[in-house]
Amino acid sequence: RTLAEVGPVVAAAQPHVILCDIQLGHERGIDLPRRLASPAPPVIFFTSYDYPSYVRAALDSGAAGFVLKSAPLAEIVKAIRSVAGGGTAYDSSHLRNARKAPRLPSSRELEVISLVAAGNSNAEIGAALGIDERTVESHLRRLFDRYGADSRIELITYSVRAGWIDLNAD
Questions:
Q1: In 113-149, which positions are buried (b, 16+ CB within 10 angstroms) versus exposed (e)?
Q2: Are 135 and 126 in contact (CB under 8 A)?
Q3: Exposed/middle/buried for residue 69 (C-beta within 10 Å: 0-12, 13-18, 19+)
Q4: Tens of pLDDT along 85-126?
Q5: Most buried in the list 39, 107, 115, 157, measured by CB within 10 Å?
Q6: Which residues contact 11 (CB under 8 A, 6 or more apart)?
Q7: What distance in Å separates the CA atoms of residue 111 and residue 121, rounded to the nearest whole number?
Q8: What distance in Å separates the CA atoms of residue 144 and residue 14, rounded to the nearest whole number?
Q9: Number of H helices, E strands in the chain
Q10: Cα dist. 158→99, 116, 135, 150, 151 in Å?
Q11: What pLDDT digit, counting tens, does each position of 23-47 carry?
């Protein structure tokens, strides 16, 4: 499903809890809690992305929990029951690491980073995204400052290590 399709499905099904991956195809599932009409059921991010910045993004989005797909079944069921009962489901080590984690780049910033990683120039990135080359430069400047990168290569390396981009993806 796409994020646009989730709202009507949730309204019709009226689930007590939503399990959602961080990444939904080419969309960011992390945006789901903000996109649901109120009152909305709580969201647990159920994902294989075990990166502190994703836990931070889940917290920032208002998600009720974050559970890894590799977790034992009993832990997954416990998380669902906890959230259905009004609680939360965040592992304490995830919470500790999330406090120190960098903020996840916006969707547009991730597009810029991905296009940089593909070897595109600022002019090519601007053309691909329908934005001015100066806007691309502005995005890159902010990204360099935010993540302490001094070059495009450092930004790409940081992004790969943080799990934001996959150089092997299509």
A1: bbbbbeebebeebbeebebeeebbeebbeebbeebeb
A2: yes
A3: exposed
A4: 999 999 998 888 888 888 889 889 999 999 999 999 999 999
A5: 115
A6: 37
A7: 13
A8: 43
A9: 9, 5
A10: 18, 13, 21, 11, 11
A11: 777 778 888 888 887 788 999 999 9
CB under 8 A, 24+ apart: contacts of 138-146: 139/108, 139/109, 139/112, 140/112, 140/116, 142/109, 143/105, 143/109, 143/112, 143/113, 146/102, 146/103
Q: 């981009």: which residue's tokens?
A: 165
69/159 Cα distance (integer angstroms): 22
Integer Cα distance of 108 and 129 in angstroms: 9
Whole-prediction pTM? 0.74
Residue 80, token pair as written in the block: 């669902």
Q: CA 135, CA 100: separation in Å to the nearest integer?
A: 29
Residue 64: both structure tokens together = 């009720």
